[in-house]
Amino acid sequence: MRLGNRRGLTLVELIVAFTIMALLTAMAVPIARYKVRRERERELRWALREIRTAIDKYKDLCDSGQLGPPEVDTFCYPKTLEVLVEGVKLAGTVDKKVRFLRRIPKDPFTNSTDWGLRSMQDDPNSQSWGGQNVFDVYTKSMERAADGTPYSEW
After folding, report:
1. How far apart are CA 43 and CA 63, in angstroms?
2. Its pTM surpasses 0.90
């Protein structure tokens, strides 16, 4: 009895094919995770740079006297991040406002706009905000970068 031209795969061929597919998948998953993490790190750097640039622009305008006299204890830094979005009136004008941010960027690690804040009077590595002004921002994520530095120190 001849079976003729048989088509299809034997059980051994199927097992080998599935094993190869499983190995390739197992190698691809860590690479995909690494790529996602690198993208979130890039977004974090961009968001921090955007907020810090807005704080610096506010400080420059205040120091030049264009925002009027600074409030007590602010040292010409904004009181909150919302001030950078809402804008401030220029001194000597009735209705001209300057906005420094369109919106507060989202933290890619915490997925919120709730950033850690430091005032000028706070310790540079402080994890609590004194509330006098916004001198610097940091992520509230407790994760660490590949080199071991916490993202909150970026």
Report:
1. 30
2. no
